[in-house]
Write a structure and sequence with these properties.
The complex is a heterodimer of chains A (191) and B (226). With 191 residues, chain A is mainly alpha-helical. Chain A has ten helices and no strands. Chain B is elongated. The N and C termini of chain B lie far apart (56 Å). The chains are: A mainly alpha (191), B alpha+beta (226).
Amino acid sequence: MHWIHASVFFSLLVTGAILYFPSLSIAIGRRQVVKDVHLWSALAWVVALLVVVIVGDRSSLRRSLREVDRFDRDDGRWLIGKRAPQGRFNAGQKVNLILTGVLTVLFTVSGVLLWLGEQDTRFRLDGSIALHDGATLISLFLLVGHLYLAVIHPSTRHALRGITRGEVREDWAEAHHRKWVEAEREARRRV
Amino acid sequence: MKERREGVPIGRAAFLGLAAAGISSLAWGKSAFDAVSSALPSGLPSIAPSNGWRIYSISNPLPTFDPATYRLQVFGLVDKPFELSYADLQDLPQESQISDFHCVTGWSVEDVHWEGVRIRDLLASVQLAPTARALRFNSAELPYDSALTLEQALLPDTMLALKMDGKPLTRPHGSPVRLVIPQMYGYKGVKWLKSIEVSREAFAGYWEREGYDNDAWVGRSNGYTS
């Protein structure tokens, strides 16, 4: 799920940037090709997401969604900068996921309106491009922070292994996601 | 396996609320962006969303302007077809104006300084045939073209611009000369003008053939009614 989203997002971002920035539009040209790649990437993404949901581990997805949905006092404390034990997703990760979900919806709605609006005046709203642009700006902001924490920042970099290899060091998990480690240990004890 | 502390399920509420707020921006987003962009210091708006130029082209590469060989041809329903070099264009009476530019897709650039030639001055040296009703503008970027009625071409703020923001038109903006008609959406403003044909009728140009309106009045065409 993460890597489908990441690769398609990257493709959409690059083609989107070419369509948006004059310096790139001029240098690359081929507007129709770039536009087609942009649109097909978006379509491929929707299809890929459906495939993941249909053939993937739905109960695992549901469990993740449930975790992301819930915010407790520890999350509240964490979000204002205080140390507090976190679950499998820390509060920032939950916020990121929710915002990503929101932005996905907003990109899809505005993108479809822009595309349909080219063919049919009934779909032309001058707010479509504002929404699409605004979503891009917010996404870029989130992306920069996301990449910094995932790749550069020393204490969180290890999480990258989690999303690529599917595992992390237990001591790191204890320090950063204590409630998750404790819950897993308890589950093992019961078994 | 139950989590020890349940917490409050505000995630889905946040998702739905934010998504709804975002979608509502379809109604107010453009005004908001225009307001923010006008408030920003002048250097910034060119990268701020919805208040900087975007360059759309239909074929590759963008035309290049060679001052030695460039000629703007004027033909059709006139008594004497003629052509003008870049220097000839510069010798015609020059006027300047400040106008907003609106693209039909929803972005705008405010307060663009244009300098150039009024159509009436361009055509001052010729007689139009009695059947002449329109002008077709042909771009060097094939097959881009558009047309205006004579009345639209002679509006007080329609012009053939040679300079934008104090400098000669740059290549992405349609050098050496482009049509500017601020009261209509930007697709009517043919860039890299190669020739002008005086005709009986304002035949549909490139984007008009794709379904966009001939009379592309800002705010009251192409499905917009604001």
